[in-house]
Amino acid sequence: MKRTPIKKIFSSGKLGERILVKGWVRTFRNNQFISINDGSTINNIQAVIDSSQTSEDIKAKLNPGASVSVLGALVESLGKGQSFEVQVEKLDILGESDPQVYPLQPKKHSLEFLREKSHLRPRTNTIGSVLRIRNEVAYGIHQFFYERGFYYLNTPIITGSDAEGAGETFRVTNFDIENLPLDEEKKVDFKQDFFGKPVNLTVSGQLEAEAGAMSLGNVYTFGPTFRAENSNTSRHLAEFWMIEPEMAFVELEENIEVAEEMLKYLIKRVVENCNDDLEFLDKRLADEEKTKPEKDRSELGLVEKLKFVLENEFEKISYSEAIDILKNSKPNKKKKFKFPVEWGIDLQSEHERFLVEKHFKKPIVVYDYPKGIKAFYMKQNDDGKTVRAMDVLFPGIGEIIGGSQREEGLDKLKTRMQEMNVLQEDLWWYLELRKFGTAPHSGFGLGFERFVQFVTGMGNIRDVCLFPRFPQHAEF
RNA sequence: UCCCCCUUAGCUCAGUUGGUUAGAGCGGCUGACUGUUAAUCAGUAGGUCCUUGGUUCGAGCCCAAGAGGGGGAGCCA
């Protein structure tokens, strides 16, 4: 007999049928009631044993965390907490769990403590819900692009080019680092390395995706990226996943439209398909908010916030307009900003937060940034000062998407590379995309974990991955 | 990398102006319990007060350095 996932029992279980349930014990109460969770859903199923017919040895092993197999009939429950339960005919302990050392108790644990037990924390309601929602989002991303005729492209994880010229990279080598081969000038001789040149883990698949767009039309990547930056914040990881669509014959305006449409599609999907998990996280967040001082509490609950984003159009403003709003803002006039507002500066967290959370009170898209603070490949506007870049800013997490229309003119691109000290010989192939059949094209990058953070309401990005990677942390 | 905060039982925390024997809830252990819902009831064990050094008659509490954790900033997604 095959086991029935608990999720299936809740959705289509029939009273009277005999079922086999396998999962992990959450609690064992009153010598009778086993609460079992198998990860398929946040909901537990209650299995009822006949205490007098069950050996003391078995009962002593029904501890939190133990894995069990339960065979019995699905019957109407006599108790009030659930409408049905399993009347146990046969119970097997598959794996014991010593309560003296099992770290997860039937009580609330701090997320910091759970982070030290990353291998067990998916068994908690919170992390379990987050990972199920993460899956829903990942699947939704593929479906969104598939439905629109985009091709899923796998760009290399090991690359020879540092895509944006910014961001520390992780070097990849098979050298014996205790004994590096040196050339005549006593420098490391990369000719002897595996690839015959220095290579690193990718920081972005964008440049490679552009090659895809210049042949397949509309493509997207969805894969891991790596940054060796010493970032210690609640929204940075050393290893994270990025979604990077790249579209041929598309200009910035349409790029922004696709970004907004995608974000809403994904949120809608989670709201529709992850009700149980979302409800739990909503309540969790509400409880957490209660412990904060009133002025720091957010006005909307998690589900309310998601629906709010769905129902409202993102505000689109140019960088110059954003600067004007900031200059005329109360905090600026009262000199509350730590960083002065001046055309040409990069928007700081405090500025973004003011625009999103105080001024517009909804997601915003800022476009046409000064060229001096953006990457070399972005298309230059005719004003000579700005580029066709756009950032989508979300409440709570700030920049969730960064994108642009790409410079398709070969000469303009070369000039810009020279100005910004990007080596043309390293990117000869990228330049050839402009030499042969160049075309307007655009794309953007969505930080997967940041988006999952937003839809789950988790405050720390380290709690939306199974085993997060960040400075000094690769235990698991 | 910078700034701020924290570190007391397995977990979450309390611990008064420096004062003698460091507490609670949950969890553990022993026992009871056939309709419980993070079950409940009775009993019980459990501490390198992060580490090192210092001040003091006396330090969980004060000072210094270090370690670990968190929040914020920068970089960005």
List keywords for this structure.
16 strands; 14 helices; 476 residues; BirA Bifunctional Protein, domain 2; RNA-binding; OB fold (Dihydrolipoamide Acetyltransferase, E2P); globular
Describe the structure.
- This protein has 476 residues and is α+β, with helices and mostly antiparallel strands.
- It has 2 domains: 6-107, OB fold (Dihydrolipoamide Acetyltransferase, E2P), CATH 2.40.50; 130-168 and 203-463, Bira Bifunctional Protein, Domain 2 (BirA Bifunctional Protein, domain 2), CATH 3.30.930.
- The protein contains 14 helices and 16 strands.
- The strands form 3 sheets. Strands 6-10-11-16-15-14-13-12 form an 8-stranded mixed β-sheet, sandwiched between helices.
- A hairpin with a 3-residue loop joins strand 14 and strand 15 (398-405).
- The longest helix is centred in the first third of the chain and has 23 residues, at 125-147.
- The protein starts with 5 loop residues before the first helix and ends in a 20-residue tail after the last helix.
- The structure holds one RNA strand of 77 nucleotides.
List the uncertain runs.
Answer: none
Number of helices: 14
What CATH calls the topology of the largest domain is BirA Bifunctional Protein, domain 2
Let me know the CATH homologous superfamily of the largest domain. Bira Bifunctional Protein, Domain 2
Q: What is the CATH-assigned architecture of the largest domain?
A: 2-Layer Sandwich
Q: What's the SSE pattern?
A: HEEEHEEHHEEEEHEEHHHEHHHEEEHHEH
The first-to-last residue Cα distance is 35 Å
**Helical percentage:** 25-40%
DSSP E strands, number: 16
- With strands numbered from the N-terminus, the spatial order across the biggest sheet is 6-10-11-16-15-14-13-12
Alpha-carbon Rg, integer: 27 Å
CATH class of the largest domain, named: Alpha Beta
Number of domains: 2
Helix and strand content put the structural class at alpha+beta
Largest sheet: 8 strands, mixed
Mean pLDDT: 93
